[in-house]
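ok trying this again, last paste got cut off
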Amino acid sequence: MAETRAGQGEFLAEFQRLVGEAPHHNIHDLNQLEDHAKERLYGLLVPGKVFDLFGIDRETFTNSRGEKVVEVKAFPGSTFAVIEVRENPGDRDCIFYLEIEDTSFYKIEINFLIINDPRAPRFDTDVDEQGRRTKFATVRRNIPEEIRAMEAGLAPGQVRRGLRLLKDFVVIAESFIAAMGQDMVIAEPLTYNTAILFEHYGFNYIRGRRRMEEIHAGFQPGGELFERLDGSTPFRKPGMEKTVRGRAWAIHDGILGEPWRGIEMYRTREPAGICTFPGWVY
């Protein structure tokens, strides 16, 4: 706890150095800053290990060849910001991608977060066999690539394995909202496994906790979802109820009988201690 508070103190000092003493309580305010200040400020949201692992200079945002690989999109007058980090400027996938936005209730929401290992094998689950975007399987799917990804240990929505830096990012997010005088950050998990990971890192539910508890009950022996793990597809094999990833792939495959939606979470400065999958194995 003391280490976390010390880190938040350092973050606040750097935040105030960049924005001054005037209050900046939302993304819209931050986006009015000068470009250099905005870039440095939003760069604070990137876990330090990203810079260390890929040899990116924290001051210049350049790689070992002097190419700029950190891009911040935060236009004056807008209420959102996007931070993209790549190993090389032309890379297809980001190492780190974050989109944050002001909500209508004056909170900050994480719209999208990706942390990839760009050197790991890629699985084209984000496009179908004709190269069309799948939009998280909401409009189409690439079943062969999904099977390959699942067998390689990835979760739905992943095109490469991650860097296991979510914990680092959550600590940074805490510091960010504290520096802005806010009391929480909001996130909508796009997959079941993401919701469970968010629980693990202290998030609570705005809506959807009862649904998560129903899902857990349904995967118990004799439950409706348990019975649907009948081997009818590669994503519905018996035993998949035992792990977070297994459940996530079954849900991705439509085992709920309805789209995955209606889950919204938040993280305050204190962890919530919620767990809807007791004893889970990822």
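PB: full thing came through this time. The chain has a mean pLDDT of 93.
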